Amino acid sequence: MESRLRVQGHPIQPMLVTFPLGLFVSAVVFDLADVAGGPAFLGEVGYWTAVAALVAAALAGVAGMVDLWDVRAGRTRRTMLTFNLVNAGMAALFLLACLIRADVPQRGASGVLLGVELVALVVGAVGVRLGARLMRQFERGRREPSGFEALDGVPAGSTVEIIRPRA
């Protein structure tokens, strides 16, 4: 997997995807506690955690689209496209749940909304599987320098690079 957005030679998008996934899981845990009879504020915490996850998912989606821009047609492009669509599907399900809860007092969760969120997490698990496949493809084509080789050609303080597309 070639990536235009990298940090220390590693693609940024797989790093960004972990934030919304973790926040979505946390939102479901808070909502589960709310539906199970916990304090009412847990539903509101779950709602705002899902909103934060949606913002993080949008940023990860933008990075995914930038990476997809220059990938040649083939298996890697199909996997990347499917990965981005699956993550967008998960985010869409959570967005639906958030929009329904926006007008509810204290933004509490219901059993049906919790079910929608659990389905979204299952969709997200498919995305994790596809992301792992992409990373294996990326690692196959990459040789990690070792020892003093790692220091050759790296300007001091250089950590983030944006690679121009090849002609």
Mean pLDDT: 78
Q: Can you give the helix content as a percent range?
A: 55-70%
- Lateral arrangement of strands in the main beta sheet: 2-1-3
Number of strands: 3
Approximate strand percentage: under 5%
- Put simply, the count of helices is 4
Instruction: Give the biggest sheet.
Output: 3 strands, antiparallel
Radius of gyration based on Cα positions: 19 Å
| String of helices and strands | EEHHHHE
Describe the structure.
- The chain is mostly helical.
- Helix content is 65%, strand content 5%.
- The protein is built from 4 helices and 3 strands.
- The protein has helices spanning 13-35, 41-69, 75-101, 111-140, and strands spanning 5-7, 10-11, 160-162.
- Strands 2-1-3 form a 3-stranded antiparallel beta sheet.
- Strand 1 and strand 2 form a beta hairpin.
- Helix 1 (13-35) packs antiparallel against helix 4 (111-140).
- It is elongated and about 55 Å long.
- It starts with a strand and ends in a 5-residue tail after the last strand.
